[in-house]
């Protein structure tokens, strides 16, 4: 039974307003930190193993608010403001190209209860730094003497007397700028992108979550209305590929809301949104895994709650027949997952048309039982040719027979059995059907086409991989390719190919359209170090160049790159140019040989106040941000940014990347928006997180 919650007054958060200064320290702690594309038509599908799925042509559907109700944790007593409901929205049809066209039946809905889910914290192994770089030291190409000029030239030191007065004082900023408070809904939105609710700090995605995370999400879900959360989830999950790193966190919030909502009306309204928010079977499996883990945290004996079981049955009912047939076409492994899931949610084929019953039974039937046409498939007689063709393809071991079937039925990569996906005979037919992102992700398998007998297939693959037009359209950041290289240490042949691709990728992804003020620390002591934790094979300098030079090459106009050059805390122009290559940019950093510098963050804004350009982004790439802010608080740097936003650029933001850190370098305000994002270490998700932060998807 679900008990009503007692009324509680919300506690006003306490804001720490203590002033903070910026000074240098020499002690440095060096740790780090460390995600996809959807069911498409039959002739253009992606592998089920991918984390993301394309969201093209999906139109978000927002429903009007309905009745109010409360939401709370089962078995506790608490009362909050009523939440608005969300009526059921029908799933959008997804055409199954060509040969599987069937008449669609009506979909029946259902009623109430609760669910569950999980992502558990992992320990980061700390290792001693290593020396050297993953890439060989390459000679710096010849360049003018003024470009190779080092710190020998005297630098005019800015003193307190010659620095122009700007309203950067914390008290002044508080009086003049509007303080933006972070709401519960905004905290949940932040969790979708960086897995953090209290502060804008990203320390890695991880694969599990703790009970503490569950408690935090439960408390936030208690304070939001169902309609608000559904709209927020829709914006994050639909048509948001370039910003959302992966759907796991958003699906976790959905599962937590369903499992902790004690009001039947609210719970039903959110449950009816599941078929719209969970767009593909890949996301459905993620959602169900998280829901099962939540049940364990809540110490329930059943794997799924009634609410979740009804949501899953409604999900299958709202898929079109063509979508269900495409799921079956992905392979026996996917079919077994569907079969197991339907059994565990107590699926009963009642109130369904005979076509739906036949299709769901097809999902649950092993291929060996489909060699001869079974009677239960008679309602799908219109798709008999393609069903029999896929069954024959799964049964054969001859690649030439497989090629004939693939060509005859125009099958795509994910409809071909795993053993044929790496076969050179089929590669010639499959590679042209793939998107650039898909080609990039399956590259280790395609490598087997490198055999001399299949050289034509491999050449076709490599030609598409280095196609600059497709590269720009796919918007794959150099950092993402660099992370791919780190995973290929044992495969020298493919590693060499990706090193060439990495060097060619700079300047060939979508521009941010922003003016960047980039500040980097290239002290000699750090450029030899290796990152710790999840990426121990990454050299500090390689990671710094992948990030800083990558963004500079994409948006060179109006942007500048500076480095701390000595113990005075002054910044000097790094003299990168948009015509530089990766080798030249790396060599420039090595040639300067900065011995020891003072990282003074305030100097960034003092210099920016004198520049004619108004900067949109202050990108700071350092070993760890504590060296530039020894008091370990964000108040001072936030006041500097607030002053710059008042006097120069109202939408400026700060992005700090602490390459050798595995946790936040300073304490940030929990209740107010400071427009600062800190990223610890490096990861494949970093470019998408930065895109989301700049697009104001979260604060």
Automatic annotation (TrEMBL):
Residues 171-514 form the TROVE domain. Keywords: Cytoplasm, Metal-binding, Ribonucleoprotein, RNA-binding. The keyword GTP-binding does not apply. One of its GO terms (cellular component) is ribonucleoprotein complex. It is found in: Cytoplasm. The keyword RNA-binding applies. Residues 1-10 have a biased composition (Basic and acidic residues). It comes from the Eukaryota. SUPFAM superfamilies: TROVE domain-like (SSF140864). InterPro entries: TROVE2, TROVE_dom, TROVE_dom_sf, vWA_Ro60, vWFA_dom_sf. Pfam families: vWA_Ro60. Residues 1-23 are annotated as: Disordered. Its main location: cytoplasm. GO terms for molecular function: metal ion binding; RNA binding. Belongs to the Ro 60 kDa family. This is TROVE domain-containing protein.
């Amino acid at each position: 039974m679900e008990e009503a919650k007692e009324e509680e007054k919300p506690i006003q958060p306490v804001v720490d307003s203590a002033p903070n200064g910026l000074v240098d320290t020499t002690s440095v702690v060096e740790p780090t930190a460390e995600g996809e594309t959807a069911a498409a038509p039959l002739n253009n599908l992606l592998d089920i193993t991918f984390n993301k799925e394309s969201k093209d042509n999906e139109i978000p559907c927002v429903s009007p608010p309905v009745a109010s109700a409360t939401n709370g944790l089962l078995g506790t007593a608490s009362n909050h403001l009523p939440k608005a409901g969300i009526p059921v929205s029908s799933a959008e049809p997804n055409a199954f190209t060509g040969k599987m066209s069937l008449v669609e039946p009506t979909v029946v809905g259902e009623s109430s209860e609760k669910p569950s889910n999980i992502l558990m914290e992992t320990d980061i192994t700390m290792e001693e730094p290593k020396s050297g770089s993953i890439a060989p030291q390459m000679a710096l190409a010849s360049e003018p003497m003024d470009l190779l000029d080092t710190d020998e030239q005297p630098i005019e030191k800015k003193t307190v007397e010659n620095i122009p007065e700007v309203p950067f004082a914390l008290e002044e900023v508080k009086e003049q700028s509007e303080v933006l408070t972070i709401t519960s809904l905004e905290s949940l939105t932040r969790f979708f992108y960086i897995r953090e609710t209290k502060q804008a700090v990203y320390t890695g995605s991880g694969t599990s979550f703790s009970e503490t995370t569950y408690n935090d999400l439960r408390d936030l879900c208690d304070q939001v209305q169902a309609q608000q959360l559904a709209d927020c989830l829709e914006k994050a999950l639909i048509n948001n590929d370039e910003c959302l790193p992966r759907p796991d966190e958003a699906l976790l919030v959905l599962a937590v809301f369903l499992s902790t909502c004690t009001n039947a009306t609210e719970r039903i309204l959110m449950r009816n949104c599941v078929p719209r928010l969970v767009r593909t079977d890949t996301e459905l499996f993620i959602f169900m895994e998280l829901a099962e883990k939540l049940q364990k945290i809540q110490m329930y004996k059943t794997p799924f709650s009634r609410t979740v079981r009804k949501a899953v049955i409604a999900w299958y009912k709202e898929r079109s027949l063509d979508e269900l047939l495409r799921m079956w076409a992905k392979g026996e492994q996917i079919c077994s997952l569907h079969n197991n899931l339907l059994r565990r949610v107590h699926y009963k084929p009642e109130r369904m048309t005979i076509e739906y019953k036949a299709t769901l039974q097809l999902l649950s039937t092993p291929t060996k039982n489909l060699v001869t046409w079974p009677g239960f498939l008679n309602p799908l007689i219109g798709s008999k040719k393609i069903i029999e063709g896929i069954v024959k393809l799964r049964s054969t071991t001859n690649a030439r027979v497989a090629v004939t079937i693939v060509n005859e039925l125009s099958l795509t990569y994910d409809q071909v059995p795993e053993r044929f996906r790496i076969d050179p005979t089929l590669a010639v037919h499959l590679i042209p059907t793939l998107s650039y992102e898909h080609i990039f992700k399956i590259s280790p398998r395609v490598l087997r086409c490198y055999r001399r007998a299949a050289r034509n297939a491999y050449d076709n693959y490599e030609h598409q991989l280095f196609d600059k037009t497709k590269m720009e359209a796919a918007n794959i950041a150099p950092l993402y390719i660099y992370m791919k290289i780190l995973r290929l240490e044992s495969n020298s042949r493919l590693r060499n190919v990706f090193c060439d691709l990495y060097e060619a990728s700079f300047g060939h992804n979508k521009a941010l359209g922003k003016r960047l003020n980039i500040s980097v620390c290239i002290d000699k002591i750090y450029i030899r170090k290796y990152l710790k934790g999840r990426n121990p094979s990454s050299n500090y300098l390689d990671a710094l160049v992948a990030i800083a030079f990558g963004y500079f090459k994409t948006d060179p106009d109006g942007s500048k790159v500076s480095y701390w050059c000595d113990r005075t805390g002054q910044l000097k122009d790094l003299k990168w140019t948009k015509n530089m290559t990766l080798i030249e940019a790396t060599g420039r950093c090595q040639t300067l040989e900065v011995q020891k510098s003072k990282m003074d963050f305030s100097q960034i804004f003092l210099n920016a106040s004198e520049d004619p350009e108004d900067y949109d982004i202050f990108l700071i790439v350092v070993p760890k941000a504590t060296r530039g802010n020894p008091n370990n608080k964000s108040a001072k740097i936030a006041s500097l940014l607030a002053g710059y936003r008042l006097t120069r650029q109202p939408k400026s933001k700060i992005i700090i990347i602490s390459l050798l850190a595995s946790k936040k370098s300073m304490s940030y305000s929990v209740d107010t928006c400071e427009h600062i994002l800190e990223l610890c270490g490096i990861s494949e998700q970093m470019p998408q997180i930065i895109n989301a932060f700049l697009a104001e998807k979260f604060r």
